[in-house]
Specification:
Blueprint: H1 8-40, H2 53-61, H3 66-93, H4 98-111, H5 123-134, H6 139-163, H7 170-195, H8 210-231, H9 244-274, H10 283-302, H11 308-325, H12 327-330, H13 335-353, H14 366-370
């Protein structure tokens, strides 16, 4: 199971997804640039002298989400406007020279540090420099034509992105949540298997998986955020409704569980390889601990707070905690076992807290898969 979540298989799937999304974005960008160029050749007035800026505007605003395209296009236009405004005082002072070029670029870079400019910050020094060097004797006309054609490109780019297969990334968030849950459950299962082997265990991959869990958690959060962003301004959201607030709740629950699983990984690895003498596992507690971990993994994999797997897991953890507190373990060092038991209890409490919004397995439809 784990091989489907990490390693070469996951990498191959990710590359396929990235390639598909990149190809779709490339096709839409090419289409938007072509349409923008066709329109730009028919724009009247002074802007007709600068049709090449329309395809540039279309390219500048293209983004994997509709909301991102709108934001990036608006920020680009704001950045251009600021850049033009900064260039005019320098043009009025004197002609083009080494000094004026240095000043306009320097001021533009400083202005690019203003907050909330986003993608527009990169256009400020470029716009200032172009007005100075290309505007010639009519910087006002050049600036106006430049801005109009960029506006044409941005409008075309946003329209194409909104109307031609606007991407919805709901399935990516769903897959990420499911994979994260399965990885955490598999980690628990591997730790339980290690308890049943002769020590030190032959299989130690689980002890080096902390970074994988952290990385996957970050990727899943990004996937949920992308799904949320892709719904904004997207006409397809009316046909494909999903409660992303519930996804955020599940993600937060899994992040809390991941914290406890990582803590268990560190504690058990320390018991086995680093501090076996100072923090041993009492032999009488090994079997109850292994059973509790196995049952918790099953409950986590099922994610059914009211199901039998949850009931069995809670009973197994409580048996473990009773063994720890019993007189049989009172004379032994039980710190590590107690820490593991508390982590298991907190994992189950987190799953139990999700009883009002149980994890639902939803198969993405074909349209969502196209995104």
């Amino acid at each position: 199971m784990l091989s489907s979540l990490t390693g070469s298989a996951a990498g191959t799937r990710a590359r396929k997804l990235i390639t598909h999304e990149r190809v779709l974005l490339a096709i839409k960008t090419a289409l938007a640039a072509a349409i923008a160029w066709w329109i730009a050749l028919r724009v009247p007035g002074v802007a007709a002298q600068y049709p090449y800026y329309a395809p540039l505007g279309a390219v500048a605003c293209m983004y994997p989400t509709v909301a991102g395209s709108a934001r990036q296009g608006l920020q680009t236009l704001i950045g251009l406007t600021v850049g033009f405004a900064l260039a005019f005082p320098i043009i009025l002072i004197g002609d083009v020279s080494v000094v004026s070029v240095a000043i306009v670029v320097g001021v533009g870079v400083l202005a690019a540090g203003l907050p909330k400019l986003g993608a527009g910050r990169d256009w400020i020094p470029i716009a200032s420099l172009f007005v100075l060097l290309v505007g010639g004797d009519s910087p006002e006309e050049y600036s106006f034509g430049y801005l109009i054609q960029m506006l044409v490109g941005v409008v075309v780019g946003l329209s194409v992105n909104m109307l031609v297969f606007p991407p919805l990334h709901l399935d990516g968030a769903l897959r990420g949540l499911r994979n994260f849950r399965e990885l955490l459950a598999q980690q628990l299962s591997d730790m339980a298997a290690a308890l049943g082997e002769s020590w030190p265990p032959e299989h130690e991959e689980w002890a080096e998986r902390e970074s994988s869990m952290s990385n996957l958690g970050q990727e899943v959060r990004s996937a949920v955020q992308l799904a949320d962003s892709s719904r904004r301004g997207n006409p397809r959201r009316l046909r494909h409704k999903r409660d992303l607030s519930a996804d955020y709740q599940r993600l937060q629950a899994m992040e809390r569980i991941a914290f406890h699983v990582q803590d268990m990984t560190e504690v058990l690895a320390g018991v086995i390889w680093h501090t076996p003498e100072s923090t041993p596992l009492p032999p009488a507690l090994v079997d109850p601990l292994r059973d509790a971990i196995v049952r918790t993994a099953e409950a986590l994999n099922a994610w059914d707070p009211d199901g039998p797997t949850m009931t069995h897991a809670e009973a197994a953890v409580e048996r473990l905690m009773q063994e720890i507190a019993s007189g049989a373990a009172a004379e032994q060092r039980i710190q590590a076992t107690a820490a593991l038991g508390m982590d298991l209890r907190r994992i189950l409490l987190t799953v139990r807290a999700e009883s009002t919004s149980p994890y639902e397995e939803v198969v993405p439809d074909s349209e969502q898969n196209q995104s």
